[in-house]
Amino acid sequence: MSTSSAFEFVSDQLEQLTHFNRLEARGTLRFALKAAGLDGNAVNAAQMGVVIARTLPQELESRGIANAAALCQTIARGLAGIESGPARASTDDVFRRLGG
Amino acid sequence: MAGLLALAVFVVFNTAVGLRLLHTAARGGGAAAWTCGFGFTFIGLLGHPLHMISGAGALPVGEVDHALSAAGSVFIAAGLSAFFAFTLIAFRRTQTWAWIFTAAGVALLFVSAFGQIGALATAPPEMPSAEATRNWSMLLGALSTICYAWSGIEGIAEWARARRRTALGLTDPLTANRILLWGMHGVCVTLLNAMLMTLSARGVNLGESLLAQLGTAFFSLVSCTTITLAFFPTRAWSSWVRRSAALAEA
Questions:
Q1: DSSP output for B38-105
Q2: Taking CB atoms and an 8 Å cutoff, what residues of chain A touch B175?
Q3: pTM of the model as a whole
Q4: What is the extent of the structural domain holding A21?
Q5: How many other CB atoms sit within 10 Å of the CB of residue B34?
Q6: Angstroms from B54 CA to nearest CA on chain A
Q7: Which ipTM score applies to this complex?
Q8: B170, closest residue in chain A (CA to CA)
């Protein structure tokens, strides 16, 4: 199953800016997304921005990354250039529209 | 009497919610609104009332109105198919297993509906209709239980994730609450189906069983309340949900 462009961007950045290999970078990001109630297939850039600010720093610190907050700020700046639309209609979209 | 009253409440609430969702769908609510709207309308407005009026399940085969019973069976199968499709669209639209699961569920629903129609058409007139269609009804009951259980499990699991999103400001509290209410509706109807199937398998006459009547009344009322609050939220309910979310965040 394909992941969203925001997910791909952030996991690539983690791989480049830390000692993580590809699997570790994607796994760490998935944990951060799970803590935010999101999944890598549908997350958009705006949601990813919140994850980078709120849940990713803790995940990085727990894996021995010392400068997690600064690293997240760097990644967030790069994320600004990523398309912000949703990768697909989310469950939230479906239930919001059902409200009329 | 309690069971009849519960059925009346079920019909009124399911019809109101179904028509409201079809109205939402017509104004651009998308495939989810169409499937959910048809699900409630086919089952609440058409399927169960037609089945009941036909006498199927209560009268001997010779006294059953076969056309009404057939229409009721087909509408119930169509309604449950719509709910299978809704769960697929809302929660699992990118997953192949869910498409296969839904297709299998829909196919079996129509097999069970036409099986009931065939069993009634070929049974001797003096035979109780409930006995003539017992096996097909059990299959329909099992499929209905699976349909609502899937919907309930997905709803509750998604609500758990939606709570985390709400805490981060990523999801509107009212939307998260709507997902929870949808999950509760699925769980509630699953428990009702499971109870009725268990009693029926033990040979209990559902029309005369106090447990069946009270259980039907309880679960019907709870499920009607959940879908009404989900799709017709009052101002007071919406305010309470938002206030609770704000308090939880603080």
A1: HHHIIIIIIIHHHHHHHTTTTSBGGGS-HHHHHHHHHHHHHHHHHHHHHHHHHH-TT-HHHHHHHHHH
A2: 92, 95-96, 99
A3: 0.89
A4: 5-98
A5: 19
A6: 33
A7: 0.88
A8: A47
